[in-house]
Predict the structure.
Amino acid sequence: MHAHQNYNLLLVVLSYVIAVLGSFTALQLAVGIPNAQTSRQRWMSVLAAGAVMGVGAIWAMHFIAMLACDTGMAVTYNLPRTALSALIAFGACSLGLAVAGSAIFSWSKLVVAGVCMGLGVAGMHYLGMAAMMMGADLSYDVSLVAVSVVIAIVASIAALWLAFNLRGPLQMLGSALVMGVAVCGMHYTGMAAVIFEDNGGQVPANFASGLRGNNLGMSIFVVAVAMLLIVLAVNYLRQQRRSQLSI
Amino acid sequence: MIELEIQILSDRREGLLVELGRTVVANGFTLLRQRLAQDDRGAWLTMIVRGPPERQLALEEELATHSRVRSFECSLFEGGAAPPPASGPAVARAPIAAAPATFAAPASSVPPAGPDVRQVESMLPQIAKDYPRITPWLLTLQRTVAAESREASLLLVGRRTGAWVFKRDYAMGAKLGLADAIKRIGVPALRALATIEQHGEQLHIQNSPLCSPNGHSGCKFFSGYLEGLLGASIEPQNVFVRSLYCRSTGAVECILEISH
């Protein structure tokens, strides 16, 4: 028997807000990559932006969205797979941002970077789904899976174009809103592709030791607060720098 | 053609002549003679170069801001004597436009088109403070500097202002191609100062407040402004702005052409 998915609308909205906040923070850091004076500065910017995008925007959004989804069954998450999903998002986003932020802006680089980011979003999602432990077997509608990956890639390309090619308010806010669409669009299309088949309550042996919703909620809260602090710190430092610039 | 004597102090001598020689050649100058010496402060490179006077300022800017250059001096080279010994006063590394000050001091060696660096430097803080409402300051500068320094002074203040605006408002993001840089950076930045229209790589400035009929501007401020603004935002960094038409010479509107 298929388990139905019911969503808590408030948490769905919150998942988008977190995706946008994470993307905004990450792109604030990422647009500094082309201005790095040394390779060390450059890699620090790439890794910081990749970490915030991968863990802050994508991973945190995914698990808020999972908390929003009620299948009527108890769910826990396999810790190593959950950690690996965050690592994949971090690696793919770092790679994508490093490519997008190098030398002169070009469409070929944008596409490569968008594919990296999009696959990072999708990879994180489907590994995160594989980390779910519950009394059901998961299967997928392959065509919807493909659509979810395409959404992630196309929206990532659009977000990176806005972030690196434009200047001004649209650059930061517009790109963050579009990246939020990339992450959430991919996620909820991916969720539409999944079928939870009730297996009669047979849960994996390590079900009891898995991460539970309340643990995830606390982790996500910490991530969100960290992102807000980074945004404030980056803005403060940039304001300071602007005021100290001599003509 | 003018001949310049350029003296440079660098941390190390390896590849110095090659790197700076490229900059000299890229600015349309020919390297006539050079001398490289080492002392306890570093490597001293003295070059005698010959080239077009209108490229002097651009060459000085590039050399003064080159990553290998610690200190920099430039003066008109008079006579065909051999280059002097490679030692001299170590001046602090000049910011972009301060370099010409070293040769602007003695009246006899002031090049005809050299900027009035003292006037420009004293006005720049006011321009930063009042930006973008800077027209009165620029008109004052036009009036107060000597006629032979007017264009170079306006060009200099334009470059400094453009580079400052870039760092302040447009530095975040990828390096762009020239067309994108004009569209995303040049046009919005210049709109803060004047009413403009973009036509490809030409910018049309309508009713330029600096270029009144029978005036003396020659669009030099706006040319320098765009060079400073766009030079930092694109790769490679050489941007040239040419005034095709100017209201001050009877045209209906000012037209600037931007190229690499």
Remarks:
- Chain A has a mean pLDDT of 90.
